[in-house]
Amino acid sequence: MMLRGLTRGRSDPDADNGVRTLTPADIDRLAIRNHPRLEEGDAEALVIQAPGLSKWHPASEEFLIVTPWRHRAEIPAVNVMSAFHHEDALMAASMASAEKQGAAAFVLLETYETRQPSFYARNGMRRLETIVTYELTQPESFLKQMTQRRQQFVKLDRQTAELGEAVLRLDHVAFPWLWWNSAEEFSNCLSMPNIDVWAGILDGNIVSYVGFTHFWRWSHLDRIAIRPDAQRQGFGREALHFAVERMFERGATRVGLSTQGENAASRNLYESVGFRETPDHNYDVHGVVFEPGRSYIEQGSRG
User: Fold this and answer.
1) What is the distance between the alpha carbons of residues 8 and 244, in angstroms, rounded to a whole number?
2) Which CATH architecture has domain 133-283?
3) Does the pLDDT value for residue 148 go beyond 90?
4) Superfamily of domain 20-124
């Protein structure tokens, strides 16, 4: 499907309804004591990530903090919103500033709270994606299902720059634009001791890659991608098996993951090996795409 630019001729973001741009100097004036998602120092650290895009209403102390989504500056996202009476004014001001700065899209994820459909309609947003979550509670059962592996898996680190560039290229042909990883996102992942990224190689060429985050006794599969011309040949199952094996070796007794609701191929794969949907953790991604002609095209195998 095509997501077309939804510009609405928004007015000067700092001229209406008493809304102002939120800066680090304003943080002390916000009512964030005992905020469920903000610790001391968090607000300032978040605001500086996307200068000019976070907004507040001084009279009511309501605020909205915006940060780059997945380290992609061209896609600002609502990170925290604490507003009851001026949420539309805050959203309009932030989106207007994002559009003025040349952002490609502006998104809001329903991971912490669910809003009424009328809220998105009023703010010119549409649902871009439904994210479906899964969990595997008996990884050892899946690990018994495969005895032969054609790919050789190589772990990425800061010393494998050339391999990392090839994986990034694979990421961009295997996923739609909205879900691309950025070079900054990869760099951030490789710097984290509890995150693994592995490339699957066959005959000297990258066929797949996987990434996962390990927590205490459970792991989350963050990414799995198969080169488009290598799909439907069992490489996705191999890559998934390898990732679960690595997670299990690191002590995981449960494995979680998420995928796009419309991605039938990935969902069928996960369900066929024992993953079960966890509906309570599903969420929607709402947003507006400013650049006319931006395509959201089904490409490759997505995880």
Assistant:
1) 46
2) 3-Layer(aba) Sandwich (3.40)
3) no
4) Gcn5-related N-acetyltransferase (GNAT) (3.40.630.30)
User: Kindly report the CA angle at 302 between 301 and 303, in degrees rounded to 5?
Assistant: 130
Average pLDDT over residues 206-214: 96
* Whole-structure pTM value: 0.85
Over residues 252-278, mean pLDDT: 94
Domain boundaries, the chain: 20-124, 133-283
The Cα-based distances of 251 to 194, 198, 238, 294 in angstroms read: 12, 18, 20, 42
Report, as an integer, the average pLDDT of 28-41: 78
- 32: phi then psi, degrees, rounded to nearest 5: -115, 5
Structural tokens at position 181:
């990883």
- Asked whether residue 204 carries a pLDDT value surpassing 60, the answer given is yes
Whole-angstrom distance, CA of residue 59 vs CA of residue 18 = 8
Distance CA 175, CA 181 (A): 9
Residues 253-265 have a mean pLDDT of: 93
